[in-house]
Design goal:
Elements: E1 3-5, E2 26-28, E3 33-35, E4 55-57, H1 64-74
Antiparallel strand pairs: 1-4, 2-3
This protein binds iron/sulfur cluster and FE3-S4 cluster.
Residues 3, 20-23, 25, 35, 40-46 line the site of iron/sulfur cluster.
Length: 111
């Protein structure tokens, strides 16, 4: 199994998750992070760090699409290990539905 970053992260991108990962397997897009499922060791440390509950274990139902998204973008985006600056309007996007369409395929800056 692996943990996955899901829709709630989009446009929130709080990045509290990245520094706790013992294997540095977060990757940064323009408006979301993903986890590399091949590198994640399922420790679960990151899950409670996310203030908007955007990190879930893949044992939860209905996450096939997010497994694909995390796998795809972990191969394309730069690694991130240090918390960067979140978008100024992060709070406004917390728990908003329909954010999936807003997922940017562009890479972030990484660290
Ligand atoms: Fe990293 Fe552990 Fe989270 Fe996997 S579950 S992404 S290894 S902190
Ligand atoms: Fe996203 Fe939560 Fe991390 S909003 S960047 S998964 S702390």
């Amino acid at each position: 199994m692996t943990y996955l970053v899901v829709e709630n992260c989009i446009k929130c991108k709080l990045m509290d998750c990245v520094e706790v990962c013992p294997v540095d397997c977060f990757y940064e897009g323009e408006n979301m992070l993903v986890i590399n499922p091949d590198e994640c060791i399922d420790c679960g440390v990151c899950e409670p760090e996310c203030p908007v509950e955007a990190i879930l274990p893949d044992t939860e139902d209905g996450l096939d699409e997010w497994l694909e998204i995390n796998t795809k973008y972990a191969a394309e985006w730069p690694n991130i290990t240090v918390k960067g600056e979140s978008p100024e309007d992060s709070d406004e996007w917390k728990d908003k539905p329909g954010k999936k369409e807003m997922l940017s395929p562009n890479p972030g800056a990484g660290s």
